[in-house]
Description:
Elements (H helix, E strand, L loop, with lengths): L1 E4 L4 E7 L6 E7 L8 E8 L5 E9 L3 E6 L6 E6 L3 E6 L8 E4 L5 E6 L8 E5 L3 E5 L8 E4 L5 E6 L6 E6 L3 E6 L8 E4 L5 E6 L6 E6 L4 E5 L8 E3 L6 E6 L6 E6 L4 E5 L8 E3 L6 E6 L7 E5 L3 E5 L9
Antiparallel strand pairs: 1-28, 2-3, 3-4, 4-5, 6-7, 7-8, 8-9, 10-11, 11-12, 12-13, 14-15, 15-16, 16-17, 18-19, 19-20, 20-21, 22-23, 23-24, 24-25, 26-27, 27-28
Amino acid sequence: xxxxxxxxxxxxxxxxxxxxxxxxxxxxxxxxxxxxxxxxxxxxxxxxxxxxxxxxxxxxxxxxxxxxxxxxxxxxxxxxxxxxxxxxxxxxxxxxxxxxxxxxxxxxxxxxxxxxxxxxxxxxxxxxxxxxxxxxxxxxxxxxxxxxxxxxxxxxxxxxxxxxxxxxxxxxxxxxxxxxxxxxxxxxxxxxxxxxxxxxxxxxxxxxxxxxxxxxxxxxxxxxxxxxxxxxxxxxxxxxxxxxxxxxxxxxxxxxxxxxxxxxxxxxxxxxxxxxxxxxxxxxxxxxxxxxxxxxxxxxxxxxxxxxxxxxxxxxx
Length: 317
């Protein structure tokens, strides 16, 4: 396992580069995101398996999420507590970021479209809205209003063009078409609690996972919401992120406020394959490395970033 300490910064989001298997970006905040500034860390994995800091970028408010561009290995976009988005060019470290200002409250989640045809960004905010952006334009393309509580996440479908899902403190999962911002194409109550995250299965265009403040991870077939396809139990507190494996269709990872990272295979039952306890605070950030089978990164409020391969995945080819 490789570990990096982000001193006096609390980790909110970590992402592997889609272009470089040894590069990560980490979004952090001072004072648990309640006050102070934020720092982006660009980290590289050395051949010896150590994490080293190659660049840092400062922002005047806490940073809650970050994503890589899907068509330019030098661009990342971050989301901050002041309602802004910041587009950073890593090849011009002394140049201020391009900023996007429209949200009225904290921006908590970002996603970058994975289709080659278009390069678009989704931002989800505590102002109860989702916005769609072209990174080359200063103003948003569309605003999606429909949630009655703050929006924790919005994720583009990996298979269906112009489709994305959003989850909110109102307990619902909504599906949207980017072509119709007026209203969602469908809306379903998926937890009797706040819904903190969602992710699309990489192998089944109709399957989504959600996680909530009830400590549950649930799987859904978007053609039939009457009951979950699966329900995974074991987390003692809220599940902050859930993510399907890019290499195994039934494997997921989750991170929780119970200080754990858990690996699941929903075909193997409702209990975790492995529970990893290498954080001493809330775990917030989670990402699979698409270039290396089984490799994960996580980060948390204890200022630690870990890159590791869970033992339970040794048996998966």
